[in-house]
Amino acid sequence: MHLSRILKTTLLLAVILPLAACGKKQENKIRQLQPQQTQQEAPKAKKAKKQKAETAPTAAESESEPDDKRILSLDVDTEGATSGAAFTGSATIKAPFKNPFDASDISVELVLSGRANGVSMNLPMHYERGNSDKSTWSFSTILPKAGTYNYSVAVKTKTENFSSAERKFKATKGTGLGIYRPSKKEPSHFYKKGAANIRAIGANFPATLTGDTREKALDELAAAGANTLRIKLSAPNSLIVPTGEFAGKYNQPMLKNLETLLDSMQKRGMNAIVSFADASDFGANYANSYFAKSGLAPKSADFFKNPDAIEAYNSLVKYVVNRFGANKTIAMWEPFSGIDGLDISALDSYTAWLSTATSAIRDSDTTAKRPILLSAATSSELDYLWGGEACAFLGFDLVGLRDFSQGAWEHSNFFSKRYKKPVGALSATPAANAPEDPTSAYIRNAMWAGFMTGSPIVPFADFTKVAARIPSAEAIAEISAFEKHFKTADANLEALRLPEKIVQTSSSADENTTIIYPAFTETFPDREVSNDLAKLSFDIATAETKANSIPDTWKESAVISVALENVPTDKNELVIEAQSVSDPDFELVVNTEEKEILRTKISADIFDTKRPSKDIGKIRIPLTKGTNEFTIKLEGKNAAMKIARLEIPKTGSMRGVSAVKPFAAKDLKSGSIYIWARRAGAESYTVAKYKLYQRTIPKLKSFDYEIQMQDAPQTTFKVSWWDTKNKKLIAEGELTTNDQSVLKLKFPPFQTDIACVISPLQ
To answer: What pTM value is reported for the model?
Structure first.
């Protein structure tokens, strides 16, 4: 009886147990087959189970949930993933589209989220190849943090949305992001973890160069010591096919060339600033662009207002940023180069457009978070452009200056203090009618003076024009040699104003003229030309510029305040050399506190070639011996006068002989002082006008120069003199300050310019 029951029970279990087993999940079946654990073993087993879960197979190895059938393949490189390293992959999908570069037609995104590290982002994937039946899309980014990640691919078309199954992988902690960015604590250089600090020394480089020509140019720059190139893409005109079968599609050969360029730069240890658009893109050539041809924006003004045009352009921006987002050669993005160079009356629309373009960059560069560079075409104060949070670095162009060294130094110093951000000149360009200068003295002078500021970017040379490449490379080599010898990349520099020195080398005072250039050579907005800013204060005896914030264009609303100290004689004058004047006629009025001392009619007649050449374009204000203080104002509707320079004759200063202008910076960490001193007549305009590069210029004789060192009595300094042209040390020695903390230097003889480094030994 009992045996019968046992047999029945056994038979029943033999049927039920296999059926139950088939209904269980695989992991439960495995668990049943594992040996039982004792209570002592349980914690260890639990830990092992946790470790196993953390190191679970990657998505490519384990797919517990099938993909949507429209996801044909998914290939993501998760093996050995680390934070700060490139994270790449691709997906092949089946989805309908007409234009794969139109985000409103089709968008493919990588959905990435970190379980414990708080990372959550949707990264646009860029189109590689294929059609609606089978197309391949890729992504390229940098993992911001270590930890376990989930990821999937989401597809959105005009008719359907679908996504892949969610997968996971684990990223270990890496060595850091590996991208150079401006230092917040010491903004005069760039830094990245585990690498040496740098100051950006380089050039504007054409994105269109290809093949051996490109590689040769890069070799020349690398040999000169360039570490950073600014690449202008001309995105509105060059990167979208304007007409034909592929109208609206992205120019893949151009993009492939950019990829090759960035890879070539990376091999040479160079960094890139990628600039998407330029004011020149909206000139006459705009009519041939995709935006004009397609009707999205028939006129350039429409480009900044039409929502469809804006969306189309931002799709391009996102594509470029995503495609090259993992390339650590790229250090900064520049949405637009010199947007204020367009119609100034449309600033509001430009500001709104710039905001969306900046957002498009940030949306795609979510992990690297490269800083945004915003540059201006003028030297005006542009609060709307530089004052906002979007701008991490502000830049400006130097155009049409008489003295590029003065312009580079003054602008960088002024704007860095005003906006509390890194600032630097990005280019130097002579006026269209400027005298020919095959030596490119303008960029050399701008680079040396710009180096003596707190800017992390030394003014960029021009490698876009073939004729400028040799002198540009030489200028870069000069700066690079100085930087390497004195290791200035680690310095925390701040511009230091030192007085000019008048070196009396001529026996006749009649041959000597002090020349003063406007501090800002582009027109300020009217609101900025005020009594507070338009000032000139100059000591003729010491050649010390106490204040110079006058613009080069004076308008009806401007009041120019002038203070000249130590005028040597009663028979002297301040000569204003005009470059152009407005029409109709107006009056220039000069007043002291007591009376009006000059009122003169200004018209085009001042440029009458029948007048003596020395008087063409000149207005003369009488001076008396001693101190002269007065104001200059223009009276007349729409009165305007563009100023070339101011002259004070018979003062023992400039024309070809005697004034020495120092451009200096102080290292706030070490107390070292760096000086580049330029001789009068060596400013770029004079070099070009008088073809001084064809002449043998006599050396300026040795002379004494005093520097007031702050709170450093009886302190010993190492003084090093550097030959800028020959890139070598001239002499070194030690000097000690006196009881008044004055250091008495003795300049060695030099031709055009010389550099000096003063370093405390205690």
So the answer is: 0.76
